[in-house]
Amino acid sequence: MDDPDGYFGEPVAASYHDPSDRMFQPEAVDPAVSLLAELAGSGRALELAIGTGRIGLPLSQRGVPVHGIELSRAMVARLRGKPGGDAIGVTIGDMAATRVDGVFTVAYLVYNTINNLTSQDAQVACFRNVAEHLTPGGCFVIETAIPNLRHLPPGQDILGYRAGPGRIVSYSFNHATQQYRGHYAPSAARSSALTSPTACRATNAASVVTAIGMMRSAGSARICAGGHGHPLASPRRRSNRTTR
C-alpha cells in the first residue's frame, strides 16, 4: 500500500467514527474508560493506535493524562478536530517500535487493533515496547476478538460478518498461519463480494492465551484481556482474565 498512513488513510479516517456503530455507543465506551481510569490512578495512560480518540478523549476528560501512538496522520487529524483533541499528545509511528518520553501506569490497545500487527514477531515486539513504557506494577489492557472458527463448516474458510446499506463485510481464515483477511465490498456488488473484494486487509489473530505468553516473555507485570463485544470490567471483577 502506497499511502504512508497504511490502511487507515483519509478515506477510512473520514468515516471511521460512526455513531451508529455499537462500539462508539456509551454502553461500549463508558465501561472501558472507567476501567482504564481506575487502572491509571494518579498516573498516565498510553494508548497504542489512538485513532480518532474513541477512548482517549473521554479518558482524558476524566482527568487522566493520555498520550497516544498512531501510525495514521489522517486519523490524528480527525482526533485534533474534536473538542479536547488538542490536549492529547500523539507520537506518529509504529506501535511495535515507537518510544515516547516518560512512564505510564497503564497502556492499552483496544478494538481488535493488536491484530493489525500481522505477524507474531511484530506482536511480541509490541508487548516488549509496552513493557518498557510501564511503571513497575503497571498494566497492559488488550481488547480483541477471537475468530469464531466453530461457525465454519468443514472445508470452508470464509465467513460472512455484516451486510449493510453501504457494504458487505466477510472474513477469510488461514488456519495454519492464524491470519485472517477482511473483505469489504459495496453492497451493490453482492454477487462478487466474496471473490472480488474492493478492499482487503490482513490481520493476525491474537488469543488471550497467546497475549499472556507475549507479556510474560516481555517481562512486564500485568495484562488485562477482554473480548471485543464484551465490555472490559472493573479490575475487581476480572480475575478470570488477568495474570500477574
Quick take:
The protein has 244 residues and is α/β, with parallel strands linked by helices.
Query: Please, what is the oligomeric state?
Result: single chain
Task: Report the total helices.
Answer: 6
**CATH fold-level topology of the largest domain:** Rossmann fold
* Principal-axes shape call: globular
- Alpha-beta classification: alpha/beta
Describe this structure in words.
The chain is of the alpha/beta class and 244 residues long. The protein has two domains: 6-146 and 205-243, Vaccinia Virus protein VP39 (Rossmann fold); 149-203, no CATH class. It has six helices and eleven strands. The strands form two sheets. A seven-stranded mixed sheet has the order 3-2-1-4-5-10-11, sandwiched between helices. Strands 6-7-8-9 form a four-stranded antiparallel sheet, with no helix packed on it. Helix 5 packs across helix 6 (208-218). The longest helix has 15 residues, at 26-40.
Layout: helices, strands, pairs:
Layout: H1 10-16, H2 26-40, E1 45-48, H3 56-61, E2 66-70, H4 73-80, E3 89-92, E4 104-109, H5 120-133, E5 134-144, E6 158-163, E7 167-174, E8 179-186, E9 199-204, H6 208-218, E10 222-227, E11 242-243
Parallel strand pairs: 1-2, 1-4, 2-3, 4-5, 5-10
Antiparallel strand pairs: 6-7, 7-8, 8-9, 10-11
Helix pairs in contact: 5-6
Question: Main traits of this protein?
Answer:
7-stranded mixed beta sheet, single chain, 11 strands, 2 domains, 4-stranded antiparallel beta sheet, Rossmann fold, alpha/beta, disordered C terminus, 244 residues
